[in-house]
Amino acid sequence: MAGRPREFDRDVALKRARDLFWARGFEGVSMTDLVDGLGIASARIYAAFGSKEALFREAIEHYETNEGGFAERAMLENSDVRSVLEVMFRAAVALYTDGLKGCMVVSAATNCTQQNEAIRDWLAEHRKARTQSIIDRLIAGKRSGEIPAHVDEIAIGDCCATLLHGLSVQARDGVEPRRLHAMVDAFLIGFDSMVSAR
After folding, report:
1. CB neighbours (10 Å) of residue 133?
2. The whole model's pTM is what?
3. How high is the pLDDT of residue 6?
C-alpha cells in the first residue's frame, strides 16, 4: 500500500519559488528548478498554484506585499516628503543588497521571449504604478506647500523611479552599500537644493 504524499506548507513553497524567481527571473526558472527548489512534484505545484506563470504572479504579489512594500511603508510612516524619499531609498539599498538580489520587479523580466510578453508587460505596469505612487506623494507635497510651485513633481518622481531601478541593477552587480548610499546622498542634496530655491 502506497503511502500518502507528504503534505507541504503552501506559504513555504511560495517563498521558495519567490526566491528562485527573484534570483533568476521568470524565464531563468524551469519547472525542474521549481520541483527541485520546492521539494514537491510538478503535479502538486500545478495543483497548488495552477501554472508556472500563476505561481510567478503570486510570488511577485507576495514580494510587493512584504519585502518590496518599502515605498508604501515609507509613505505611511513619514509625514514629510523628504523623509519619505530618504527612508524609501535607504530601505531599498538594504533590501537590494541582502544577498545582492536587487528588486524582484525590476530584474525578473525586463526582457522576455515573445510567448512571455504578457509577463514583461505586467511587470512594467507594476513599475509604472510605483512611479505613479511616488509622483502622487510629491503632488500632495506641492499642494501642502512642502514643494514650491516651480518644481516639476513629475520629473522628480521619474528621477526617483530611475534611481530605485538603478540601485537595483548596481546592487545585483555587486556595488557595495556604501556607494549606493552615496548615490542617495547625492540625490537628496539635489532635492534639498531644488526645493529650497525660490
Report:
1. 15
2. 0.88
3. 52
